[in-house]
């Protein structure tokens, strides 16, 4: 059974007009995001991903196309209805965008003030949210007294204040160091699991997608190049744009290997088993690991290796069979130099 | 140095100057603050884009600002007479002071409001804030320290203008300085009025800066 998308983007294009030219920021975007997903949108800077996320809450109005939020067309709403819809979509930003003259607690109360929540109720809820983001002791701190990670936690609490169904994250970790990034991503995953909020993450970092996303869309040249589950895209990227993001380092290696090389993709099914070691022991023939890039995503092994196979074609063939039967995707390395 | 009557005159002059300055500043803010806000929010990429209105308003403000204050003082005399009933004295000076200061204040307010991070405005929009809520809950509170600094600069500028009004029969210390110090060569009176004006500027500026910096949460 297919659930109704929480956000559905249909034939969306966005063109910016400058005095001298037109910039096509987005072209013919179609995207369905289902409730409960952690949906990543990745692309190089300038690919249009920030514009795309702003179309989702109509901070940018699409030039053509529709955006359905929970089945309702945002473009058909009047200003008041749109403001109410926006309260169902929290948003966090790269630069946090906190009110500098308000404390953490007052910042979290802000969206509730706007929505007309009673002051005592707002304060109670804000305190609760500070607990969720683990900042209960900094309620009265001003943003200037908080670290980047703490500011983003306040921003997350603020975005959750009006009980949204969706949390839009625009490069939310790009201004943070790797350790803080991880803790923020963990928090986002917790929020997704515990509160059932759909999380949409805009990023230029593949590591962010790998770390927490369930689904991903790759955006290149203002268009969606490819979208699907992270597992699918990671193991079998079809388009050049996807391959570039997934194999950004392997690509360099492949040009240098000789003939008889195999690329092996770990797609999350063979995590605990030391497959390569097992294969070498079984056939008593060495392989040369030219490149390896595997990591743990959501508890499963994902990644790839490029192996230089033994000279003997029968051994190489058997090895290939061995790997295939263990659930790995194996392909001859293509040379396109 | 001076007799009691002179001291009393100086004291009254000081009070007149303070009255003119504060009354004009208050009224000029009543006009300048909304105008400054409008200058910002009606810009092309702001929350209420009205590009034509914005340009017209900008031109009017620049026109008013480019008229030398002494000329304006004389020009608006009919208006002053219509409003106050006379063109002489402290209350009469308030009219040209407000007309001269309001566009200046509008520009000061504009630059303060523009310091507010557009990202914060965007965040408020993403929460479903109306334009009025953005103005009252984001723009004004976030720009408050800068607005106070602007007010300190404005009030001292208006003080300077008020002294100039002495030339055309305005009241206050400027009037005393011109009548006694300039026309009668009483150098001591000239000196003492200048010293009082300098002290007044110092105090107003210092108080404004202190309030601004103690209210600014970006630093402490």
Q: What is the share of helical residues of chain B?
A: over 70%
Strand content of chain B: under 5%
Strand content of chain A: 25-35%
Query: Number of helix segments of chain A?
Result: 12
Please state how the strands of the largest beta sheet of chain A are arranged side by side: 6-7-8-3-9-10
Count of alpha and pi helical runs of chain B: 9
Rg of chain B computed from alpha carbons, rounded to a whole number of angstroms: 20 Å
Concise synopsis of the structure shown:
Chain A is an alpha/beta fold.
Fold blueprint:
The complex is a heterodimer of chains A (337) and B (220).
Chain A: E1 7-17, E2 22-33, E3 38-42, H1 49-56, E4 64-69, E5 72-73, H2 79-87, E6 89-93, H3 104-115, H4 119-132, H5 148-160, E7 166-170, H6 178-195, E8 198-203, H7 206-212, E9 215-220, E10 223-229, H8 230-235, H9 240-246, H10 250-254, E11 261-267, H11 275-283, E12 288-297, E13 300-308, H12 313-325, E14 329-332
Parallel strand pairs in A: 3-8, 3-9, 6-7, 7-8
Antiparallel strand pairs in A: 1-2, 1-4, 4-5, 9-10, 11-13, 11-14, 12-13
Helix pairs in contact in A: 3-4, 3-5, 4-5, 5-6, 11-12
Chain B: H1 4-41, H2 51-66, H3 69-75, H4 77-84, H5 90-114, H6 118-126, H7 131-164, H8 172-182, H9 187-215
Helix pairs in contact in B: 1-5, 1-7, 1-8, 2-5, 4-5, 5-7, 6-7, 7-9, 8-9
């Amino acid at each position: 059974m297919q659930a109704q998308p929480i956000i559905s983007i249909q034939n969306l294009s966005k063109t910016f007009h400058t005095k001298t030219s037109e910039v096509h920021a987005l072209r013919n975007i179609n995207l369905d995001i289902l409730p409960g997903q952690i949906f990543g949108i990745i692309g190089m800077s300038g690919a249009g991903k920030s514009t795309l996320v702003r179309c989702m809450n109509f901070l940018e109005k699409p030039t053509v196309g529709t955006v359905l939020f929970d089945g309702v067309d945002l473009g058909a709403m009047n200003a008041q209805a749109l403001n109410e819809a926006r309260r169902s979509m929290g948003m966090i930003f790269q630069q946090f965008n906190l009110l500098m003259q308000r404390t953490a607690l007052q910042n979290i109360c802000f969206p509730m003030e706007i929505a007309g929540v009673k002051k005592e109720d707002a304060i109670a809820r804000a305190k609760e949210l500070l607990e969720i983001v683990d900042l209960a002791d900094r309620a009265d701190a001003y943003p200037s007294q908080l670290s980047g990670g703490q500011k983003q936690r306040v921003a997350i609490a603020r975005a959750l204040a009006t009980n949204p169904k969706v949390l839009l994250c625009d490069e939310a970790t790009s201004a943070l160091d790797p350790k803080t990034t991880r803790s923020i991503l963990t928090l986002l995953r917790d929020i997704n699991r515990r509160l059932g909020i759909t999380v949409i993450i805009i990023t230029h970092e593949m590591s962010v997608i790998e770390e927490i996303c369930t689904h991903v869309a790759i955006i290149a040249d203002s268009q969606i190049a490819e979208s699907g589950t992270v597992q699918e895209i990671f193991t079998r990227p079809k388009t050049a744009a996807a391959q570039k993001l997934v194999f950004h380092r392997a690509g360099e290696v492949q040009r240098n290997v000789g003939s008889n090389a195999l690329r092996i993709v770990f797609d999350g099914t063979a995590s605990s088993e030391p497959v390569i070691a097992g294969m070498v022991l079984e056939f008593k023939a060495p392989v040369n690991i030219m490149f390896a890039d595997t990591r743990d995503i959501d508890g499963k092994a994902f990644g790839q290796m490029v192996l230089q196979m033994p000279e003997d074609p029968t051994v190489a063939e058997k090895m290939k069979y061995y790997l295939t039967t263990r659930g790995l995707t194996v392909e001859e390395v293509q040379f396109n130099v | 140095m001076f007799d009691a009557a002179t001291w009393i005159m100086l004291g009254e002059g000081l009070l007149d100057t303070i009255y003119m300055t504060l009354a004009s500043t208050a009224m000029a803010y009543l006009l300048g603050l909304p105008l400054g806000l409008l200058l910002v929010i009606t810009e092309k990429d702001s929350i209420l884009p009205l590009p034509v209105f914005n340009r017209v308003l900008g031109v009017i403000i620049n026109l008013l600002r480019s008229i030398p204050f002494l000329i304006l003082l004389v020009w608006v005399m009919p208006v002053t007479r219509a409003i106050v009933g006379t063109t002489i004295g402290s209350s009469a000076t308030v009219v040209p002071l407000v007309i001269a200061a309001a566009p200046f204040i509008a520009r000061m307010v504009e630059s303060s409001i523009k310091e507010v991070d557009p990202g914060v405005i965007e965040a408020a929009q993403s929460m479903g804030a109306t334009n009025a809520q953005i103005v009252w809950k984001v723009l004004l509170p976030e720009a408050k320290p800068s607005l106070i600094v602007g007010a300190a600069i404005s009030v001292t500028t208006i003080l300077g203008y008020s002294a100039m009004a002495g030339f055309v029969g305005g009241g206050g210390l400027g009037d005393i300085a011109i009548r006694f110090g300039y026309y009668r060569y009483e150098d001591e009176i000239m000196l003492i009025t200048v010293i009082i004006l300098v002290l007044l500027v110092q105090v107003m500026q210092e108080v404004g800066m202190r309030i601004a910096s103690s209210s600014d949460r970006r630093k402490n």
